[in-house]
Amino acid sequence: MEILDILKELLTNTKGFLEAFVANHGPWIYGLLFLIVFCETGLVVLPLLPGDSLLFTAGLLAGNPANQLEVWLVIVLLVLAALLGDNTNYMIGKFLAKKGEGAKLFGLFTIKKEYIQKTETFYEKHGSVAIIIARFVPIVRTFAPFVAGVGSMKYSKYITFCVIGAIIWVTSITLAGYFLGNIPWVQHNFEKVVLGIVFLSVMPIIFQLIKHQFAKK
Length: 217
Hints:
Helices cover 77% and strands 2% of the residues. With 217 residues, it is mainly α. The chain has one domain (3-216). It has a two-stranded antiparallel ribbon with strand order 1-2. Helix 6 (113-134) crosses helix 7.
């Protein structure tokens, strides 16, 4: 199977892809899950890789004794993957920010000084909340560490909330899959359940935007 076919299957049928993988390759699923979470959080050019659905499915697989997966090991590995990814993303942003105006991200776009200044202002005001909330929002969680690095947020401040966000994100969604994933109704409505999780994840952002608009008025 070509790499593009694999990515397409992973994106469009995360549950089926992972179930087939664990059936055929057993414990290698740990390495695959680690790699996907690292890429989704650490490579700013891959924001569309599955995140929430991947964690939920990982919990579901661990909840099935036939797969012989340890849920605690899944959680520990994926927390580490998320932290390694975030820190890689942060360091890439920090490296490019040092180049100043004209620095390009893989030749795709230019990082201007005014963008860096605006980012610094944003994180000074919302830094801790933004980092934790962004962890639960697809695509945003891929760009948030990069933007934090571009904005030169102090690493000591960033890493604290990065760790908190990673632990809460991985643990909550993985355990949700572990305890709920094998309920027949959930299995028959898997896509709806995942969309519901994503919707709940986005709610804090919506709340903050509404709150900000009222505050301006």
